[in-house]
Amino acid sequence: MERLGLSEEQPVTPLSKHILTKAHLEAFQASQTHKDVVDTVEELNTSIVGIKLGQAGEASPAVKSILAMLDEVEEIAKSLPPVDNSASRFGNPAFKTFYDKVQEVCPALHSKYLSSVSEESRPELCQYFYECWGNRTRIDYGSGMELNFLCWLICLRKLDVIGKDDNQNVVLSIFWRYIEIMRHLQSTYWLEPAGSHGVWGLDDYHFLPFLWGSGQLANHRHLRPKAIHDPEILEEFSKDYMYLQCIQFINSIKTASLRWHSPMLDDISAVKTWAKVNEGMIKMYKAEVLGKLPVIQHFLFGKLLPAPDLSHLQAGEVSFDEHGHVHNQEEKGWSMDCCGIPVPSAFAAAAAKTETPNVGLLQPRSGVKPIPFD
Q: Is a pLDDT exceeding 90 seen at residue 368?
């Protein structure tokens, strides 16, 4: 028996996938869970306007516990170096060991750092948590995995582990710590971008740092979106603003201009104000992440984030490919966005030009040359 591409030999998990067709996607977009995701993104966005990284204020005990939990995940990664895979520019198999280890210790981490969470809720939290680091089978990462981390945060809010007073720290401390660890994983294990188009031209992997990063800058009196083309501004201000940090990161691993390898970011830089950029990012997130079947077919539903009522809809004829993805035979044209030709890791190509096996975290390392976009 197969259900959504999962064989019966795999362990039963508390979360499940339900979105198979365009009609299902439309039902999701009208659901309370979709509203919860959008409301959380917008509320967190509002909370950080004008706030720099490191200026979120005193962290609550819950925030400190979550940060310590993330530190342990990073230590797991540091203890599991990549295996010799020099013949390939694709994902390093050692990532599977990392993923398995995080999955193994996940219940203990939640018990240790989130002791107020009931035993009933921990399995749901655990699945969002270990799935947010990437896909074990494909050794890739994209906006769907990033969404799992957001769902984990939403569940912690629903369980009153973190509250509105923590909003600034949720983005500027917890989420940014997650991004730092993800950059380490991406560079260490050469995670491939999920899907053949990356994240629609923003970044090979992420979306939310640009959304919330533009929110940070929304009322800045001096910096303008075109400032991303000024190396001196990036050098001075990237330590304070997520958006600029992400631009500097992209520049650290790719040559040529944004016009060539990130044309959408280049186009966005022509917008006059960061407030307009931020407004557009929110609309884009709703359309290009929460509104795309290749992403939302993998959305995980449970008791805390329940699935929409789909009982009145027909699933239609579906099939499962080798990646465990669902394809509706009546809908042509979108599947390649989901499981097109694998995209080599940019880190792998950069490392091939040096003697350093792992390159590029949030800052470029000396001796590592950027690579042409390919």
A: no
**318 or 146: which leads in pLDDT:** 146
pLDDT-wise least confident of 3-12, 254-263, 300-309: 3-12
Helix, strand, or coil here: 373? coil
The H-or-E segment that residue 327 falls in is: strand 326-328
| Neighbouring residues of 278: CB distance < 8 A, sequence distance ≥ 6 | 45, 211, 214, 215, 217, 218
Residue written as tokens 């201000």? 237
Give the number of other CB atoms < 10 A from CB of residue 316: 14
Domain boundaries, the chain: 12-198+297-307+341-347
**Is residue 374 pLDDT above 50, yes or no?**
no
pTM of the model: 0.85
In our burial notation (b when 16+ CB lie closer than 10 A, e otherwise), range 238-257 reads bebbbbbbbbbbbbbbbeee
Q: How far is CA 242 from CA 84, 175, 191, 206, in A?
A: 33, 11, 21, 12
